[in-house]
Automatic annotation (TrEMBL):
Keywords: Methyltransferase, Transferase. GO terms for molecular function: magnesium ion binding; S-adenosyl-L-methionine binding; S-adenosylmethionine-dependent methyltransferase activity. This is Methyltransferase domain-containing protein. PANTHER family: GERANYL DIPHOSPHATE 2-C-METHYLTRANSFERASE (PTHR44068:SF11), ZGC:194242 (PTHR44068). Residues 93-186 form the Methyltransferase domain. The keyword Iron does not apply. InterPro entries: Erg6_SMT_methyltransf (IPR050447), GPPMT_Stmyces (IPR049645), Methyltransf_25 (IPR041698), SAM-dependent_MTases_sf (IPR029063). It comes from Streptomyces klenkii. One of its GO terms (biological process) is methylation.
Length: 283
């Protein structure tokens, strides 16, 4: 007899996180996605065009929104760049997929199958609808599943990524599951905010970010310890902090600002918080 599958939401904390994202309808996510139908749940990278702050006042907010969206899609491109070559017959996994924008970008770039998982049923339903609207639902699918135990096949994925979703889980559990799912020689990429091991735990700004998102930001060293314990060998480590600051400076001038902009800018500039990309190979 086969045992019943484990429930997706297993702890009170996971249930609270799922409830938060099921109810989340933040304009800073939805209005940016409305620009071109790519809905992200991460921040942006690169310098913004200062001309968006000039020109007619009547169209100022629309210009800022379009520029913020350009920066967040540029961030997704940086992540996909670090996956390395992906063949159309290979498979990718977006762990903590949000509303699914990066998976759609991955399919458009590589022509491969892309799966996403989220513990928010609302996000999964939204993302699958976007894939259907784009006519890519034969290749891009989103699943109501726990990224710590997805139920997806062992060794089936050439690439897996977390884009600003690791702060909700235990890293040792997460990387054990990723190592199980990755093919040998496959690539794992994470982009995340992480605290400075020396000063981050004392930073009021980092604590405010945790409180805002109901998350638990990990220290930088925790990523490398958990990777080493699970056969993931870092090949590229890129500190993106300086490239992340312009996005927050522009967002602070937008009507879509949520109040978390100042904590991010303070934490980055005081050095208590880093925006980090790690690309690691499965050995």
């Amino acid at each position: 007899m086969s045992s019943a599958p484990a429930p997706v939401l297993r702890t009170a904390y996971q249930k609270s996180v799922a409830e938060y994202w099921n109810n989340e309808k933040d304009p800073v996510n939805l209005q940016l996605g409305d620009v071109d139908g790519l809905y992200h749940h991460h921040y942006g990278l690169g310098d913004y065009d200062p001309s968006v702050l000039e020109g007619p006042e009547a169209t100022r907010e629309a210009r800022i929104t379009e520029e913020l969206h350009r920066l967040e899609s540029a961030q997704a491109d940086v992540l996909l760049d670090h996956l390395g070559p992906i063949a159309p017959e290979q498979r990718l996994l977006d762990a903590g997929c949000g509303r699914g924008g990066t998976s759609i970008m991955a399919n458009a770039r590589f022509g491969c199958r892309a799966d996403g998982v989220s513990i928010s049923r609302a996000q999964v339903d939204f993302a699958n609808e976007q894939a259907r609207k784009r006519g890519v639902d034969d290749k891009v699918n989103y699943h109501f599943a726990n990224m710590l135990d997805t139920g997806l096949p062992t060794g089936a994925f050439q690439g897996i990524w977390n884009n600003e979703s690791t702060m909700y889980v235990d890293l040792f559990e997460l990387f054990a599951e990723h190592a199980r799912q990755l093919a040998f020689g496959g690539r794992y990429v994470v982009i995340t905010g992480c605290s400075n091991d020396v000063t981050g735990g004392r930073s009021k700004a980092v604590s405010r970010i945790d409180e805002h998102y109901t998350c638990n930001i990990h220290p930088r060293s925790a990523y490398f310890k958990a990777m080493a314990a699970n056969g993931l060998v870092p090949m590229n480590v890129v500190d993106l902090t300086a490239d992340a600051i312009p996005y927050w400076e522009l967002r602070a001038q937008s009507s879509l600002a949520t109040g978390v902009e100042d904590p991010f800018l303070t934490a980055y500039k005081e050095g208590s918080f880093h925006y980090l990309l790690i690309a690691a190979d499965r050995i």
